[in-house]
Amino acid sequence: MAALEGEGLTVGLGVAPDPLPEDCMYAVVHMSPGRSVSESLADVRSSFDGLMQVTAIGPDQERCLWVADKVRTALYAPLTVAGRMSFRPEELGGPPAIRDDDVSPPTWFAPIQYMIRSVS
Fold it and tell me: Fewer Cβ atoms within 10 Å of its own Cβ: the N or the C terminal residue of the chain?
């Protein structure tokens, strides 16, 4: 979330931020619980893999895709985690931007999935 906020994005964890920004452009982070990964035959489990989805949201398709570009810029570099070495998030992609007519006014959203990895 800090990396995304560093790019000037308003970010919510699992839900839309409250209050919503006036321009209705923001991102929502959804994290899986992840998994510890054996790094050797000795079954030392100091590595971590986690699936993360960042959903870019905007009032129209163009601004939704602008948020998605800001997300990609923010997550291009390795993430900083105290006490761990992390790798650059691997973008796994997602579907095209989709219009959500279930909210008023309608908004557009584009989910982007990433695999994140770190070792201690």
Answer: C
* Gap between the Cα atoms of 38 and 30, Å rounded: 25
Dist CA 17 CA 8 (whole Å):
14
Indicate the average pLDDT of the chain. 91
How many whole angstroms separate alpha carbon 57 and alpha carbon 111?
A: 9
> Could you identify the residue written with the tokens 């949201």?
57
Domains and CATH numbers, the chain: 2-38+45-119 (3.30.2000.20)
Stretch (H or E) spanning 51: strand 47-58
Question: CB–CB of 100/110 below 8 Å?
Answer: no
Over the stretch 6-50, which tens digit does the pLDDT of each residue have? 999 999 999 999 999 999 999 999 999 887 776 666 666 678 889
Structural element, H or E, at residue 68: helix 61-74
